[in-house]
Every structure is written in C-alpha cells, then in structure tokens.
Design brief:
Layout (H helix, E strand, L loop, with lengths): L2 H12 L2 H10 L6 H6 L3 H10 L9 H9 L3 H13 L13 H10 L4 H7 L4 H10 L4 H16 L5 H10 L3 H8 L1
GO cellular component, one term: cytoplasm
Main location: cytoplasm
Protein name: FAS-associated death domain protein
C-alpha cells in the first residue's frame, strides 16, 4: 500500500465537515465550482488534487498551505514527518513513557477532565476538536486530550507536570496513584 495515500486517507478521516468546507473554499482557484460542489469527503478532495497534480508525493506545498490555513497543526506535523522520513510512524509504534500515567488518569478522572487539560494549557479549540471527534466517549476525550498535550509539549511533557496539574485541580488521590 502506498504510504502517501495512507497518509491522505488518515487526514481525510480526521477532518470535520467545517474543515472540509474550508479546504474546498481554499481550492476554488484550483478546482472548478461544479466539481467542488460534488465533493463530500476529504478523500474525494485529495483525489481531485492528486489527479490535477496540485499535490504529489514530491510536492506537498499546497497541502501544507491548506492544513496551515485550517489550523490543523497536528496534521501538518504528520505531513512534515512524512516528508522528512518518507513515512509517518504510527503513535502506537513509538514507545510512550506516559502511557501508564495516562491510563491511571483516564481511569480515575471523570467529568472534570477539562479542568485538568486547561491546567496543562491546552487550548479550548483543541479540546473542542477532540470532543467533536469523540462525542459520546468521555474516557477517549480525556485520553486524546492528554495525547494532544503530549504531542504539543514534545520532550517537555513530563509526568511531574501531570501530577502538578492534578494537584492544582484538587485531584490529589489521582496524583498519588500516578506517583505510584
């Protein structure tokens, strides 16, 4: 399977309707109006852009522009990783030193998870995007928020920061469990 097409497929799956609509608007000078009106998914949009050679494996500058304009830095970083390394490694393939701490937090933090995530300085826009992607799964919302915080902070993401944020939210019992 072509890694570039897999990457575009994963991008397509993670786009909201609003983001797709914004991307379609931004493509108005590249794709005819009638063709754009029939596009209902990111996959269809990417297929047209590939057919017209507006995006290729070797030239992703237009795709970078689109992702930057719709404020999807997470997808932009995956694209840059693809360009740098030739493919994107799935997060599951990379060892995660925070995995155990994140599981403990997800198992013990309930409806107040947003307070914790805000304490970690993750923006409301990112939180809302995660909630929209996982509308009925509170645990997954928290888990994905913690993952997003970890990606955003990179090497600066420390378990000690999680513990400090938990204590700052008066979630001392959970903080104690994370320390263990």
């Amino acid at each position: 399977m072509d890694p570039f097409l897999s990457l575009l497929h994963s991008f397509s799956s993670s786009l909201t309707k609003e983001e797709l609509s914004a991307m379609k608007f931004l493509c108005r000078n590249k794709i005819r109006k009638r063709k754009l009106e029939s596009v209902e998914s990111g996959r269809e949009l990417f297929t047209i852009l590939l057919e017209q050679h507006d995006i290729t494996r070797e030239n992703v500058s237009f795709l970078e522009e689109l992702l930057r304009d719709i404020k999807r830095e997470d997808l932009l970083s995956k694209l840059k990783q693809f360009v740098d390394e030739g493919e994107v490694k799935a997060p599951e393939d990379q060892p995660d030193p925070h995995e155990k701490s994140m599981e403990v937090i997800c198992d013990n933090v309930g409806r107040d998870w947003r307070m914790l995530i805000r304490k970690l300085d993750l923006g409301d826009v990112k939180i809302d995007r995660i909630v929209a992607a996982n509308p009925r799964d509170l645990r997954e919302q928290l888990f994905q928020s913690l993952r997003e915080w970890q990606r955003w902070r990179g090497r600066d993401a420390k378990v000690a920061d999680l513990i400090t944020a938990l204590r700052g939210c008066s979630m001392n019992l959970v903080a104690d469990r994370v320390e263990q």
